[in-house]
Amino acid sequence: MFNVLVPDNVHQNAIDILEASAGISVSAPGKMERADLLEAVADAQGLIIRSGVTADAELFAVAPQLKAIARAGVGVDNVDLAAATAQGTVVMNTPGGNTISTAEHTLGLMIALSRHIAPGHQSLAEGRWERKAFTGVELKGKTLGIIGLGRIGQAIATRAQAFEMTVIAHDPYLPPAVADAINVPLLALDEVFARSDFLTLHAMITDETRGMIKADTIATMKEGVRIINAARGALIHSADLAAALKSGKVAGAALDVYEQEPPPADHPLIGLPNVLHTPHLAASTSDAQITVAVEAAQLIVNFLLGGKAANVCNPAVISS
């Protein structure tokens, strides 16, 4: 019997899949405190997590039987992949489950930013009528630069083209044929920075991408560029972006993610009038939450009962 622990709130459909699988015993108490998690995981062979659970060296040290982790979502920044690999634990994710939700949220941020929807609403709610203060810009005819043309980037590209935007992208890992199929030219990073009216980030955190939006790269961008980040907060050097927003070099920014979540009260981007914030909502639709939870449960079942691994984030553990 394989014990599977679900220490966070996932959709009941996922729990039903686990409970219906002969050979699996499931414990799904909902969101757990860290101390309770470290105690409960000791007997687990499978673990399903969301972004709120950190699987670090401390967790692996008390979970010697852990064979597989399934992340209900795409990012595995909250998993120490090196520690998982050293222990022989397979880490899998569900990269396709929240694609549409994240793409739609990104486009929503872009539209709201270009048309001052949030401050316009707030102004009217407070009893003011300030039409001239909120003159926006159209998306039609503007150039959208996408950094990272994976599933989400591609979904954004095709939708932005429906708004008659010119779409360009940078992705050093994507086969050119994939970009060609959706009529998006792959360009050097500095060219995307230089040409974009809107810039949206969809890259993973690496040594090359961490803090990629900073003073010297912002200096190469168009005057009045607008930046959207629904990927990873660490892609942006917050103080540098704040300075560019205050100077007018960057006309506006829309942010759904932050290097520390929730962000501290003194975060340099919180409270700026030309910044639109949401609290990490890109994947927060009922549709996406069902999809990623069900996919994560199926990944665990397939691996523990059938030895089949998919969407492996630490492939070295398979080949070792």
Using brief descriptors, characterize the structure shown:
alpha/beta, single chain, globular, 320 residues, 11 strands, 2 domains, Rossmann fold, five-stranded parallel beta sheet, 15% strand, 13 helices, six-stranded parallel beta sheet, 37% helix
Low-confidence spans: none
What separation lies between the terminal Cα atoms?
A: 25 Å
Q: Strands across the major sheet, in which order?
A: 7-6-8-9-10-11
Number of domains: 2
Q: What is the CATH architecture term of the largest domain?
A: 3-Layer(aba) Sandwich
Major pleated sheet? 6 strands, parallel
Radius of gyration, CA atoms, in whole angstroms: 21 Å
Instruction: Let me know the CATH homologous superfamily of the largest domain.
Output: NAD(P)-binding Rossmann-like Domain
CATH class type of the largest domain: Alpha Beta
Classify the beta-strand content into a percent band.
15-25%
Overall helicity: 25-40%
Helical run tally: 13
* Strand-pairing-aware structural class: alpha/beta
> What is the general shape?
globular
Number of strands: 11
H and E string: EHEHEHEHEHHEHEHHEHEHEEHH
CATH topology of the largest domain: Rossmann fold
- Rounded average pLDDT: 95
